Amino acid sequence: MQTQMKQAKAFKGARVQPTAVRCTSYGRARLAVSCQAVEPKKILMMGGTRFIGVYLARQLVEAGHEVTLYTRGKKAITSQIADDSDWGYKKFASSVKHIAGDRQDFDDVRRKLSGSGFQVVFDINGREAVEAQPLLDALTGRGGSLEQYIYCSSAGVYLKSDQMPDREEDAVDFKSRHKGKLETEDLLQRSGVNYTSVRPVYIYGPLNYNPVEEFFFHRLKAGRPICVPGSGMQVTQLGHVKDLADAFQACVGNPNAARQVFNISGERYVTFDGLARACAKAMGAPEPEIIHFNAKDFDFGKKKAFPMRDQHFYASIDKAQALLNWTPKYGLVDGLKDSYDKDFGLGMCRKAADFEVDDMILNKLGRRSYSYA
Fold first, then answer.
1. pLDDT at res. 180
2. What average pLDDT does the segment 155-173 reach?
3. Any idea of the CA torsion for 106, 180, 185, 208, to the nearest 10 degrees?
4. N or C end of the chain, less CB within 10 A?
């Protein structure tokens, strides 16, 4: 009880008990059976013009928060997406604010944010602890306004283990390629700031700049087999970007999120082979031919033969479901269909089709070559 009281004091915003309320989503009405009303906050988002931030910024504005994006300003601050209605987008575009700046210019960050009055920070694109320090310098201390620092970390921080799924209390690996994320979490913990760290597994959905589902969509569209490393029975996990945005929003002003770490992803796990078949179902394509290969038999140079790490990789989301009153809305196939229908199926992709590595595999295995489609 004392712990809960201390967590509650970390927030100045009023909060009500979960209740059924009417919400809107990008201009389309939906019934959310478990929304939590939070006093509007002045929110700073580092990034926000691609993928996660695009959806999260819309949700935060829709919830009544004042949202400012901090970007270099090299691309449009807002643009209409497939999920937007015309009037919903106009409302969002007229509401969101912008600060132009490079977060790598630490002194400039401090100058621009000192005295700015931001109550909540969403650090969506931070990779290193040195990038978070200027934000803490500017928004905490004497006269500081910061109530909560919400950080996008990664489930890739966990140390490999014989027991799975990965849980928030499990050992982490400071030698992993995500060590900068861990060092940022460590900085936030030591700083005494009220922080929440979110650790997604693989993220997918419309506008995904990582070629996760796009890898499969390209090959299915071309009628090509899908080359999968090993047995194809490696177990992994994907979480839809809109479910991730929901989880981020559920952290705002939530006493249960105070100084906590949460894994966020989908509820179900899937094998590599199963993911290939799920992508085919999502786009209405025939079940694909799957070719297994041993990655050790090849030298692909800097190119990747498969978009996911060749190992089991999945995490428990029980803690987030229990403490944040959050649960994923998307199953895997319907989430992939949403991604396909609102992105790849509209003729949009982040990277052009490239089957060079596939043909290396097929030729070595004595399979016929396929023409590019």
1. 98
2. 97
3. 90
4. N
